[in-house]
Design goal:
By secondary structure, the chain is α/β, with parallel strands linked by helices. The strands form 4 sheets. Strands 4-5-8-6-7 form a 5-stranded mixed β-sheet, sandwiched between helices. It is globular, with a radius of gyration of 21 Å.
């Protein structure tokens, strides 16, 4: 942390010298990670880049490939059940690069629009109050008993998974490796699984028998 530019410049320098190299990010390189910074620095430095497999124009163009990974929101969602089956928004509480006023506006908008909210970087040693402020914003639009998934170290040796409520969230132990999943107005918990319905039971008659489409008498 805090040495991202140094890392990105090092890999660009090595690649420009003809070396095959990679810069590694946890999760997915394009989600709160290094892919964007590498591409941004290439633009700022005026370095011609191209996607692998595309012909270089007169030999010009540094090939740059972004390799997809499994982001924390996907790994954490799988551990919880299915909290992201409907629309969701991902918001980082880190105000190191983004002003808190901007983060607060995004939280307000996502909460009011009833998105499931995935929260990255909820708390650090320096940022102890941001999560409390975020909870206060979300509470304006969500019930206190709204389910919240708390996943730390998803798919790693230090993995911890819990489901709590919005009201109890500020008391939970979370850190920079924790991803939070704040449910929307329809999110529920069933036998330790966190579920956000997609809407199938509203469209189809879901019973113990094979489900049938609900007809409204038209068509």
């Amino acid at each position: 942390m805090t040495r991202e530019i140094e890392r990105a410049e090092a890999v660009i320098e090595a690649a420009s010298a003809g070396k095959r190299c990679a810069i590694v990010s946890s999760g997915d390189a394009g989600i709160y990670a290094m892919a964007g910074l590498v591409l941004e620095l290439c633009r700022l430095k005026g370095i011609a880049i191209r996607k692998p497999g595309m012909p270089a124009e007169a030999g010009v163009g540094l090939p740059v490939e972004v390799v997809p990974g499994i982001p924390a929101l996907a790994a954490g969602a799988a551990l919880l059940g299915a909290p992201l089956t409907h629309d969701f928004a991902a918001i980082s509480l880190s105000d190191l690069l983004t002003p808190w006023d901007t983060i607060a506006r995004r939280l307000e908008a996502a909460a009011e629009a009833d998105f499931v909210i995935v929260i990255y970087n909820p708390r650090s040693r320096r940022r102890k109050d941001n999560l409390d402020q975020a909870c206060n914003i979300i509470r304006r639009h969500r019930a206190p008993q709204t389910p919240v998934g708390v996943v730390t170290g998803a798919m790693r040796a230090n993995q911890q998974v819990a489901i709590t409520t919005l009201d109890n969230l500020p008391q939970m132990h979370v850190d920079m490796q924790t991803t939070l999943f704040v449910g929307n107005s329809e999110t529920m918990v069933y036998r330790d699984f966190m579920i956000t319905p997609r809407g199938y039971s509203d469209k189809y008659a879901v019973t113990g028998e094979r489900s049938q489409p609900q007809h409204d008498g038209t068509g």
